[in-house]
Specification:
The complex is a heterodimer.
Chain A (H helix, E strand, L loop, with lengths): L9 H28 L16 H8 L1 H34 L5 H13 L2 H15 L5 H25 L3 H9 L4 H12 L1 H16 L3 H6 L7 H11 L3 H28 L2
Helix pairs in contact in A: 1-12, 2-12, 3-6, 3-9, 3-11, 4-6, 6-9, 7-8, 9-12
Chain B lengths: L9 H4 L8 H24 L6 H8 L1 H34 L2 H16 L2 H12 L4 H8 L13 H25 L3 H9 L4 H29 L3 H7 L6 H10 L4 H26 L1 H5 L3
The chains are: A mainly alpha, B mainly alpha.
Amino acid sequence: MLLDYDRLGWLRAALLGFTGLVAAFLLLPVVFIVLLSFGSSRWLAFPPPGWTLKWYEELFADPAWLEAALTSARIATTAAILAVVIGLLASFALVRGQFRGRNTLRGLLLTPMVLPVVVFAIAIYAFFLRIGLGGTTAGFVIAHTVLALPFAIIPITAALEGFDKSIEDAAIVCGASPFEAKLRVTLPAIKIGIFSAAIFAFLASWDEVVVAIFMASPTLQTLPVKIWGSLRQDLSPVIAAASSLLVLLTLSLMIVTALIRRKLSK
Amino acid sequence: MSGNLLHRLPILRRSDGIGGALPALTLITLFFVVPVVALLLRSVTDPVPGLQNYATLFGDGTYARVFFNTFLVATVVTAVTVIVAFPVAWMLAIMPPALGSIVFGIIILSMWTNLLTRTYAWMVLLQRTGVINRTLMDIGLISEPLPLINNLTGVTIGMVYIMLPFMILPLVGTLRAIDPMTLRAAALCGASPFDAFRRILLPLSLPGIAAGGLMVFVMSLGYFVTPTLLGGTSNMMLAAMIAQMIQSLLNWGLGSAAAFILLLVTMALYALQLRLVGAKRMTGGI
């Protein structure tokens, strides 16, 4: 009866308790960081001696933080759009194409997700230094698009595989051009996949640290690079404030995703 | 579907060719394959042609220690992650959806929260004067703060934290695919819960454990951020060493040789995993 929730007996209590502990473990750092960002102790004493908003004031008083966040947003948005468009085109070929080496091609396009990112980071760093793209926004966008591409391809191919092609064919039989049929029949049908792709691709760039550390220059820093730099100096509570805003962003992204998925699937 | 009369219409027979994949292929070739291959070539040409970089890496005790640390941490992290993830995945697979969605929500929140944020939280939690040491001292369990950070203990805690979702989520899928009837049959035939677990549930979930465990192991081998921040300078892992060789020491030959070793091990394990689960199952993970 091990897979019957209602008939597990005492084992259920034990497993539920353990699951609760693990959930608490997963939640602990996130909640902790948010509480800490409102604590008044510069040395991050916990529980804090008092509550304050001064770390948020310090955060917003330093234009470098805002600038880094804007740079990150710009790069992540561009990389996500590129990855979704390129990934969408590739997905049609990967799912429906009939050519030799299709599985190899799929494997190749997904490799950036598997290869340790530090290897790619130093490779693209050396390459960009040579061709003059080092420390440029274009270089950042290209590198992050490469890393985001697998995260776009996976949900889109999954959605496309679940879509019955006869519906597209029916549109063609009824007089639509193949392009029109794709645009007006297939794309709306796989929009959840495309939406997931956009979110994953955005996060892949927005949270990316390793390539960013190598690519960054004093004038071009993404938010993770800025946090990384501060972390290496001290554990200032300002980082907790910045982190809490990132947690807020994650939460809103989760809620928006859930809402949009619900709406789209209707 | 292929037997459908409609598909004899010439306009429908045209399937999508390789054309759509060309932009992606160009991007990956130009900005992924070429740079990585160029880097690997550098490992046998920089500063002079030959295998001297590999000889240095394999001949020096300092580097041997880094390799050993890396494999040790990856092994321990994988083992702990599997053991912790299994009961959680088990519960998630059979829990009432209302309760399950709360746990899933927490897992996703943890997974989607910025990596540096999570690592920063662990740096603060684990430090000498951090909450964990304080609490343990306050309740009288220890009299001296435990060294939880700047060593492999810290790295392991932080890495297990990060890897757990990657193990739990695929494992839930594996466990859900097991027919509960097999276990009911075992119980009817008189198997004790322990026997049923050991001889039915565990073997049936082994493919999922192997696939998830391998993924966690591979990811841990090449992980950079968390080991660097929680491990301190004396417990360097491979990815951090590679970054340091390039960034601070500007030793491109040695750095790219170490990168090649990491790439080789990763790709070999990845190929093994593809064998185990098949490309489709694996990429369905997100």
